[in-house]
């Protein structure tokens, strides 16, 4: 049985590996807010359990066993977030910390029932894909296109956020920006990438908003057809 700390490392490795197949030890330690020697010690333990491929001074890679184990932890976390939002009425900015605790419950049938009650969702409240029971992501539910990649005149829809930090989600809430919102880019400031956008609301209403490049980089979008 894996410890909570081991599971937290596996989850961090999974998220870093989704960006790059090879994971740098310093990146891992930064993501987990631990020292490099501390991270190195845990990686050795995960290597002994055959969860990672590890050689001194070389990037870390998840084995197939490690990738599946990590994906199942991510599955529990994202299912929990969705359950808290859809069935318990929590705001999307409040669920991450709670899911961090619940994801360590060992009972598979608990999460299978949660999945069933939710109607087998593909994504969590932040737009991230939920792995299935085999640890596979069946459908990539959003592109890797970010709002900051778009051009003036583009019409897009927000489909995910790149992180679920309290600060980002509270900011988006304050601007009434959520997944599914349709956006037209009116202007882009050449100097710093700030965007003036038109946000479409219900009842055919719309409003203008100015978003910094930092925020635009954290919003995944798809082009409207």
Automatic annotation (TrEMBL):
Matches recorded under Pfam families: Fe_dep_repr_C, Fe_dep_repress, FeoA
Domain annotation HTH dtxR-type: ranges: 1-63
Compartments where found: Cytoplasm
Record keywords, A-Z: Activator, Cytoplasm, DNA-binding, Manganese, Repressor, Transcription, Transcription regulation
Organism superkingdom: Bacteria
Primary location: cytoplasm
Gene3D superfamilies tied to this protein: 2.30.30.90, Iron dependent repressor, metal binding and dimerisation domain, Winged helix-like DNA-binding domain superfamily/Winged helix DNA-binding domain
InterPro entries noted in UniProt: DtxR_MntR_Metal-Reg (IPR050536), Fe-transptr_FeoA-like (IPR007167), Fe_dep_repressor (IPR001367), Fe_dep_repressor_sf (IPR036421), FeoA_core_dom (IPR038157), HTH_DTXR (IPR022687), Iron_dep_repressor (IPR022689), WH-like_DNA-bd_sf (IPR036388)
Entry annotated with the keyword Manganese: yes
One GO CC annotation: cytoplasm
Gene Ontology MF annotations: DNA binding; DNA-binding transcription factor activity; protein dimerization activity; transition metal ion binding
Job description of the protein: In the presence of manganese, represses expression of mntH and mntS. Up-regulates expression of mntP.
UniProt record similarity statement: Belongs to the DtxR/MntR family.
Subunit composition and interactions: Homodimer.
Full protein name: Transcriptional regulator MntR
